[in-house]
Specification:
There is one protein chain. The chain has helices at residues 21-28, 44-61, 76-80, 84-87, 110-117, 166-186, 269-272, 295-305, 333-348, 363-373, 383-386, 409-415; strands spanning 32-36, 39-42, 66-68, 73-75, 93-96, 102-105, 129-138, 153-163, 191-197, 204-211, 217-222, 228-230, 250-265, 275-277, 283-285, 287-294, 307-308, 311-312, 323-327, 353-356, 377-381, 390-395, 401-405. By secondary structure, it is an alpha+beta fold. A hairpin with a 2-residue loop joins strand 17 (307-308) and strand 18 (311-312). Helix 1 (21-28) crosses helix 8 (295-305), helix 2 runs antiparallel to helix 6 (166-186) and helix 2 (44-61) packs across helix 8. The longest helix is centred in the middle third of the chain and has 21 residues, at 166-186. The two termini are 22 Å apart. 43% of the residues are buried. The model has no long low-confidence stretch (mean pLDDT 95). The structure holds one RNA strand of 74 nucleotides.
RNA sequence: CGGGGAGUAGUAUAGUGGUAGUACGCGGGGUUCGGGACUCCGUAGCCCGGGUUCAAUUCCCGGCUCCCCGACCA
């Protein structure tokens, strides 16, 4: 990637109105563009981060079910069956098309997937089954806020599972719980499985919480054994001993909910008529669960938890590229030529690299932008380094830079 | 949805009842070239509608938008 061709222009000033760190940094660094409250474009760098996160999510999800994609436009009738056309009316965008047909924009997909599953799931022999999608959701949030943390239009990974009995559900649910922990860890986040409101079907659902001052939720947390409970349902308070390990003392902390898993039971299968036949040919409603991860919220959470006063510090797995290659002194033709050669070498080695090839940009500005954008490695090519046939390499999260031979660059990048 | 704050150039800001100034950016010239360098020239703006007034970006009313707190968030 050449910076001069990336549709990229960083801003020197923080946006006036934004208070949330993730909004300030992502807008300044030009990862995102706000069109209206809670509605953002992902510019090339932001788009790449999204791709990285989706890749991490898919890697785990594909072990648990097949991927599909459902529409965002939903007819009223499907939602009326479960009563949610009415009850979700506040958060669901609802309108009439030119023919007068009532249509909603999907805030979630339980109704739709249940409808789809009807002709597919007929017998206990078909179960269990699971399917997921990564798709755009629309929610008419009354108060979108905190940059990417609460939007009106966002990408969600939603997984739905179908079971003949409770034991099967429990087993699968635990698998997903484990997979979610892997996903968040792979995104560079420390998440806590948190007990939360469970609805009619089970005592608890589980939220995956990342500690952050920017979080809207408050949780009671045991740092000793990682037990956590949402304050909304908490039967304990800060300072109490942990009900699980008994020895830890509970903290009350703010947290961002990056994922949620929920046992639905027959809440949707029953009204929609999704049933299976048991061995005796008797119909039973399918037992279901749903599991969600907000992709853009995850981007915002990473920025909230990985930044310093100069900019973002992307965890390598989620960074838009691994290396920021800076050419200092591009006016000199031989320097430019060497930098191009190093850039092409990295590309050839399939190292993800953002090459700051901009002309007439001062060294200081390139440094400032590199810190702001926050790729894991910064590599500098300049007269100074080339005099020794070397480049300078520095990690974003370290102070010290070191010089390495050009031929050893790739090795140095991998040894870190 | 209740409460608070704010809308002046691409961004950040100053200011005025007589149509607006600065910095960065952007275009051009020159000097620079390892932490947002210097310099000269240029470019670009008062959220929308109504009212008061000879005259409104400024005062009044209404609207829209954005941010924050709260409520809401299977």
């Amino acid at each position: 990637m050449r910076q001069s061709e990336l549709f990229l222009k960083t801003q020197r000033e923080f946006p006036k109105d934004e208070v949330a760190i993730n909004a300030q940094l992502l807008i300044r660094a030009n990862f995102i563009h706000k069109l209206m409250a809670g509605v953002y474009s992902l510019l090339p760098l932001g788009f790449l981060v999204r791709e990285k996160i989706i890749k991490i999510v898919r890697a785990e999800m594909n072990k648990l079910g097949a991927e599909m994609i459902m529409p965002a436009l939903h007819p009223k009738a499907v939602w009326e069956a479960t009563g949610r056309w009415e009850t979700m009316g506040k958060v669901m965008y609802q309108f009439k098309n030119h023919g007068g047909q009532e249509i909603g924009l999907g805030p979630t997909h339980e109704e739709i997937i249940t409808e789809i599953a009807k002709p597919i799931i007929n017998s206990y022999e078909n179960l269990p089954l699971a399917i997921y999608q990564i798709q755009t959701k629309f929610r008419d949030e009354e108060r979108p806020k905190s940059g990417l943390l609460r939007g009106r239009e966002f990408t969600m990974k939603d997984l739905y599972s179908f079971h003949a009995d409770q034991a099967s559900l429990e087993e699968y649910y635990e698998k997903v719980k484990a997979a979610y922990q892997v996903i968040f860890k792979n995104c560079g986040l420390k998440s806590y499985v948190t007990e939360a409101s469970g609805g009619d079907f089970s005592k608890y659902s589980h939220e995956f919480m990342v500690e952050s001052a920017a979080g809207e939720d408050e949780i009671l947390l045991c740092r000793l054994c990682a037990w956590a409970q949402n304050k909304e349902i908490a039967e304990v308070k800060a300072g109490d001993h942990c009900p699980k390990c008994q020895s830890g003392v509970l903290d009350k902390v703010n947290a961002i909910e990056v994922g949620n898993i929920f046992k639905l039971g027959t809440r949707f299968s029953e009204p929609v008529g999704l049933v299976y036949k048991d061995k005796n040919g008797v119909n039973h409603p399918v037992i279901m669960a749903s599991y969600g991860i907000g992709i853009e919220r995850l981007i915002g959470t990473i920025v909230e938890t990985h930044h310093d006063e100069k900019g973002i510090l992307w965890p390598e797995a989620t960074a838009p590229a691994k290396v920021h290659l800076l050419l200092i002194g591009e006016a000199k033709a031989e320097l430019k030529k060497s930098a191009e050669k190093i850039y092409n070498g990295l590309v050839k080695e399939e190292v993800e690299v953002l090459y700051d090839d901009r002309e007439n940009v001062s060294a200081g500005e390139k440094f400032a932008d590199a810190d702001l954008i926050g790729l894991p490695f910064r590599v500098i090519v300049s007269e100074k380094t080339l005099a020794q046939d070397k480049v300078e390499i520095k990690k974003r999260n370290e102070k010290e830079a070191k010089l390495v031979k050009i031929g050893d660059l790739n090795k140095a990048l991998n040894n870190n």
